[in-house]
Amino acid sequence: MADELAAATEALRLDDSKGEELEEGEIVENPADRPAETKKHPLEHSWTFWFDNPNGKQKQATWGSSLRSVYTFHTVEEFWCLYNNILQPSKLIAGADFHCFKSGIEPKWEDPKCAHGGKWTAQPPRSGGKAVLDTYWLHTVLSTFLISVFC
């Protein structure tokens, strides 16, 4: 038993990645303790968040001239990183819009891929309206991802 303990202690004193002896009290990182590489969960399609603020400081010559692509995401993890770090719809100024479209499609009826599309709008109830609006937005976006898998 004492020999096994001595061998285990000596093994801990060697850094396997470098083969060098460690200083007294130095801690060896156990590879089993390292976090596993984060597995990405790809979405069926890439998606782009768009933002439009027609009431901004710039004068708008044509509809959609203030429309801006925010970010295109490809995985569940990228979606949540973006979603958790942008303003919720209830925090936007009146007239500003968020859009979520498949990558490569602009949120304009002039885009041939969107020509026969439509739009969903929702008026949240007056009581608890802001929280409900944010929930509507999240559920709509998540449902869109799910629906696109089956269509």
From TrEMBL:
Entry GO CC: cytoplasm
Keyword field contains RNA-binding: yes
GO function terms (MF aspect): RNA binding; translation initiation factor activity
Region of interest called Disordered, as start-end residue ranges on this chain: 1-39
Cited Pfam families: IF4E
Keywords: Initiation factor, Protein biosynthesis, RNA-binding, Translation regulation
Tagged with keyword Transferase: no
GO BP term, example: regulation of translation
Assigned protein family: Belongs to the eukaryotic initiation factor 4E family.
Name of the featured protein: eIF-4F 25 kDa subunit
Lineage: Eukaryota, Viridiplantae, Streptophyta, Embryophyta, Bryophyta
